[in-house]
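Quick look at the format.
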Amino acid sequence: MAYHARYLHWAERARTESLRAIGLPHNLMIERHRALLVVRRVEVEYWRPARLDDWVVVETAILRVTGAQILLDQTVRAAEGAAGTPGERLAGLKVGLVCVGQDTLKPVPLPEPWRSVLKGLALPGTAKPAR
């Protein structure tokens, strides 16, 4: 079985790659604004274990963007060729991120264009902000 903390690693990698895919890599935020996104809160629910050497897919949905915070919903699914059924949910994560200053590690507003782009990608609805 895949170690339970591995899901956190997969989710982190998916968040990094998602930002890169929309042309707003995390390292650019650090270089230009001396700000970075850190995990403030994470909740994980496991439904079925991934097996060692299984391929997985991580789907990331933005639920809410406010001030310095982002609330995400991430689902880890079995990929084609995995031991389970392709697309089967393996785990779900609710992730609260906060933007902090690189030097102070205190919350700072999410810089542009990250804020407006991520807000534009947020799913419509009434998700509560990350606490």
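Next, a different chain entirely:
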Amino acid sequence: MNKSKPENRSPLKFFLIVFGLSIPLWIIDLMIHAKRTSLLNFSIIDIITAFIPLIAGCILIYKEEGKSSVYKLFKRIFDYSRITKKIWYVPIIFLPFLMYLLIYTVIRVLGLSLPNEFHISFLSIPVLFCLFFLGGVAEESGYMGYAVEPMQERFGALAASILIGIPWAVWHYPSIIQQGHNLTWIAWATLGTVAVRVLIVWIYNNTGKSLFACILFHTLMNLGRPLFPRDGIHNPLVDYPDIHYSIIAIAAVIVIFLWGSKTLARYRYSQGSQQVN
């Protein structure tokens, strides 16, 4: 059995498998016009497709490193023990909330249309959290559990974030197009998606390379979407993608400035450079 090291993994093969397995599902989705839920705007095909990064990662790890490494990948889903600096739970948990709050505030300050009345079903939050956590596991176990390490080793943290973020954004295009969004909307979504990947890599590199930290952040970013104030007509996150995604992009730019593009883990104003664990 080939006991290759993680840095010798092939991100290219990973993305080829992800898109190779996804394309037939996208075609099926297009042919049957799979019904989407009103709250989450997901179809059953979207849900199945979400697990493809995990499947691709498991296929390659099994082939390259053996069955034991696949088990190790699944164990990393709850590797919160790697987060030795508990302060990092602050950005993991509160940064998504802060960004959504800023989006709402900017829309309000600019006098743009917002729902007059909205209701949040707090009873739905635990269910939504579990669903989005499962989705975070399905995606991050592939992108961060398999692909990120060799890409960071070769290109650095920021470039790796972008090189993962762009195909990650493109991978969402079929679902976005099915929802009826135009090219301008897709362009803003691409910017925002790449920015989210920068934030995820930043968290990963500052939490002892914790996969759980990435999954939790991904979960909370997604959880904020259905909970954002809306009514039956207006969904501000959809109506104002320029505001929505530019604020996420600004957060990513701040992170790059403060922690550096090479590692995203050396705080500019610390006494000594923080090392990637």
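The chain has eleven helices and no strands.

See the schema section for token definitions.
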